[in-house]
Write a structure and sequence with these properties.
eight-stranded parallel sheet; alpha/beta; 45% helix; Cut9-interacting protein scn1
Length: 271
């Protein structure tokens, strides 16, 4: 078995939000975690986790669509893009979590988050990822057409990031095959799956796993509790293996190789 199989990559998680679970990292030394900041206020926690655990952590800094309105309101400082660039440059990693969401509603108002602020903040983050030559982790719920348009527009302007991950992808297999893995966007696209989200509809998830190129599939936990991530990764790896007709050992090796391919930044592999 190749060296790739010795390390598992959690392509998208939020374990920085549950520091009481950090002790579990010592028990799961074979896992490299891509830890996703979401709202500016939590970026420092991602930095601290990276500082504590070194190459075990791939940091990601972004503004999630649920919090895009905070840029417009001023709750997120006007210099957020400058800070994002600085953190990615200093600490490595990628841009994310960013994206679009037409389903979620504000706990304060009960109203859906408006799309225009989300689009503006997403475009800014795509620009930064392109400028820095790093990958981007994208959240998308019921906004796949708008996301596809934004990515195509970025491509026409020469502003596409080198690697794009659709995390916990919940769209259709047809959308993957006919839109996201076509043209210039398709050359850069990866798709990630989690038990937490994709386990809700195993048949739909299997169709998507089959529609994606085998070299562009990633696995994630999308969890906050570090103690639960290993089991979640094992579970989604088993689902991917079943969908693709791979053994679980083969799936682990392929997924690790795919993650290396996605997370390469500036010529450095996170191992």
């Amino acid at each position: 078995m190749g060296a790739d199989a010795e390390i598992a990559y959690d392509a998208h998680c939020h374990i920085h939000e549950t520091p009481e679970s950090y002790a579990a990292l010592a028990q799961h030394k074979h896992i490299v975690y891509c830890v996703q900041g979401t709202n500016y206020a939590d970026w420092q926690a991602v930095v601290e986790l990276k500082t504590q655990h070194g190459d075990r952590i791939i940091p990601a800094f972004g503004v999630h669509p649920w919090f895009a309105g905070r840029v417009e309101s001023g709750e997120i400082p006007a210099d957020w893009q400058t800070r994002l660039r600085r953190l990615v440059t200093q600490h490595g990693g990628i841009v994310g979590e960013c994206g679009l969401d037409k389903a979620a509603r504000s706990p304060a108002t009960g109203e859906a988050y408006p799309l225009e602020p989300q689009l503006a903040v997403l475009r800014a983050q795509l620009d930064i990822a392109c400028e820095l030559g790093v990958g981007v982790s994208v959240h998308c719920v019921r906004a796949f057409g708008a996301l596809a348009d934004a990515l195509r527009q970025a491509g026409r302007c020469g502003r596409l990031p080198p690697r794009i991950m659709l995390h916990s992808y919940g769209g259709s297999a047809d959308m993957l095959a006919q839109v996201f893995f076509k043209g210039e966007v398709g050359k850069r696209m990866f798709v990630s799956f989690s038990r937490a989200v994709n386990g809700r509809s195993a048949k739909r998830a299997a169709q998507c796993m089959q529609a994606a190129p085998e070299s562009r599939i990633l696995a994630e936990s999308d969890l906050h509790d570090a103690a639960a991530t290993a089991g979640a990764l094992d579970a989604i790896t088993a689902l991917i293996a079943e969908a693709r007709g791979w053994s679980e050992d083969e799936a682990r090796e392929r997924l690790a190789a795919n993650a290396r391919r996605f997370f390469i930044a500036g010529g450095e592999e996170h191992l």
